[in-house]
Write a structure and sequence with these properties.
Layout lengths: L2 H13 L1 E3 L1 H13 L6 H4 L10 H9 L1 E2 L1 H10 L11 E10 L10 E4 L10 E12 L9 E8 L5 H12 L8 E4 L6 H6 L6 E6 L4 E3 L20 E3 L11 E6 L5 E12 L2 E12 L12 E7 L9 H6 L2 H12 L5
Parallel strand pairs: 3-7, 7-8
Antiparallel strand pairs: 1-2, 3-5, 4-5, 5-6, 8-14, 9-10, 11-12, 12-13, 13-14
Helix pairs in contact: 1-2, 2-4
């Protein structure tokens, strides 16, 4: 980003702050420059924060942000893909624990990571849903389009659907959305079915889908017509049959890959919504939870990627998880 673009971005960012704009912009500058700082009081010592340390808390408490204007600004400055490529978005949620903040508004029980063995993996806090532009080369630097707290009245998927509905009309092209196993459900796919984006989402290995219903017989007998065809169970090899297409090659590390796809499958809950199910086999994997030999994905959209692109495309999603680490540890989000 050149200096003129950065200056215009900062000026537009300031107009998104309905109140407390001076304090918030100073705080942004302090976060970007005082990398050794580990707390808000330390940020107040930055040369780019010419205020008393207490004004940080007052500013964060009283500031108001025009979220619609902020979305428009972020969408207008979103990094554009190279020629012939498509915009790839990531959706995920992360928690901020607040076990001691008993007066914090709308605390819920959220997932807590990296706890000692035997501890309950939940704790009081907040959960946030983040929509990002994923870089072409996986890294911890992602471009956040929207970050919204998941309230106690909503699910993670409902919040993500609202974010996509607000952001997608602001983008110039139909993007590809990547998500983990939570989003590879019939509920979420139905929720975003009318939105202008494709989805490549992780699919749980125990999911059961169905092929199209067989044509009605020429001479109809008694009983209702079949609404579903043969079963396709990811965890039962005998139900798979011959894939519609397959590809064998190597990944970025030179290890063997086999990618297969079955088109025109559906869930019983959504018979009119056809999806493609993709199986990725990695014979060299250790077959642990983090390194499975067989991974499943579901695609729904209008522009199906080529099979050699599946693995490199989905690997870009890991940038969002590394981005959360930078946000929490370096930018003091938590």
């Amino acid at each position: 980003m050149d200096c003129i673009t950065l200056a215009n971005f900062r000026a537009s960012l300031y107009t998104c702050f309905s109140t407390g704009g001076d304090t918030l912009l100073n705080l942004v500058d302090a976060l970007a420059t005082e990398t050794p700082a580990k707390s808000l009081p330390e940020l107040s010592l930055s040369a780019f924060f010419p205020r008393q340390w207490g004004s940080i808390y007052q500013g964060l408490q009283n500031a108001r942000i025009d979220r619609a204007a902020l979305r428009r600004l972020f969408a207008a400055h979103a990094p554009q893909p190279l020629g012939g490529q498509r915009l790839v978005l990531g959706i995920d949620a992360s928690s901020i624990l607040r076990p001691c903040s008993k007066t914090a508004a709308d605390r819920t029980y959220v997932h807590a990571s990296n706890l000692p063995k035997g501890c309950k993996p939940v704790a009081p806090g907040w959960q946030f849903s983040t929509l990002t532009v994923l870089p072409e080369t996986p890294s911890s630097w992602t471009y956040v389009l929207d970050n919204t707290r998941v309230t106690s009245q909503q699910t993670q998927g409902e919040t993500a659907t609202e974010q996509l509905a607000a952001l997608l009309p602001l983008l110039s092209e139909r993007p590809l959305l990547l998500g983990d196993g939570y989003y590879g459900s019939v509920t979420f796919l139905q929720a975003i079915a009318a939105l202008p984006c494709d989805g490549l989402l992780r699919l749980a290995k125990n999911r059961v889908l169905y092929r199209p219903a067989p044509p009605p017989p020429l001479k109809r007998g008694r009983g209702a017509l079949k609404k579903d065809g043969a079963e396709f169970a990811c965890h039962r090899l005998e139900t798979h049959g011959t894939p519609d297409a397959s590809w064998q090659g190597t990944d970025a590390e030179g290890q063997a890959l086999c990618v297969s796809v079955w088109h025109r499958l559906h869930w019983k809950k959504a018979r009119t919504m056809e999806v493609s199910v993709i199986r990725v086999e990695r014979s060299h994997a250790t077959n642990t939870e983090r390194d499975p030999r067989v991974s499943w994905f579901v695609f729904r959209g209008v522009s199906f990627p080529s099979l050699p692109e599946i693995v490199p495309l989905y690997r870009r999603r890991y940038s969002q998880e590394h981005g959360y680490r930078v946000d929490k540890q370096t930018l003091l989000w938590a």
